[in-house]
Amino acid sequence: METSVSAPLGMLACWEAPSVEILAEPGETVLLYTDGLLHRTGETTDRAFARLHAAAAGAPRALRRDPGALADHVLRSVLPDGLDAADGAEDVVLLAVRFE
User: Fold this and answer.
1) How many domains is the chain built from?
2) Rounded CA separation 38/45 (Å)
3) What is the pTM of this model?
């Protein structure tokens, strides 16, 4: 699922951030990330998103059961040189949530 680009959360006190509701089934994992993850690749947003999607969709089944391992796999796939080697001006947040 994609959402529209908006101002950073908390930046404007008078503005309400867009929200999305999902119905997750047991065993499903949702990945939430900041745009900094895509920007740090140095690629176009579309190309970086394709890499992110491929990393998540192609993760081995055993990793999909462990949110921490899945997040590590996705980070290593999207930023193979690691967070330290990438553009430090961009923040990176990746949250993996597994529903039981």
Assistant:
1) 1
2) 6
3) 0.81
Which tens digit of pLDDT belongs to each residue from 49-92? Answer: 999 999 999 999 999 999 999 999 999 999 988 877 655 677 89
Helix ranges (DSSP H) in 1-100: 35-39, 45-57, 61-64, 67-78, 82-85
Is the distance from CB of 42 to CB of 89 less than 8 angstroms?
no
Q: Which domain holds residue 73?
A: 29-98
**Is residue 14 situated within a structural domain?**
no
**Residue 1: both structure tokens together:** 């699922």
**72 located within any domain:** yes
| Token couple for 31 | 């990945």
Which CA distances in Å does 51 have to 4, 35, 37, 46, 62?
A: 20, 13, 11, 9, 20
70/32 Cα distance (integer angstroms): 12
21 is a domain residue: no
Residue pair 20/94 in contact by the 8 Å Cβ criterion: no
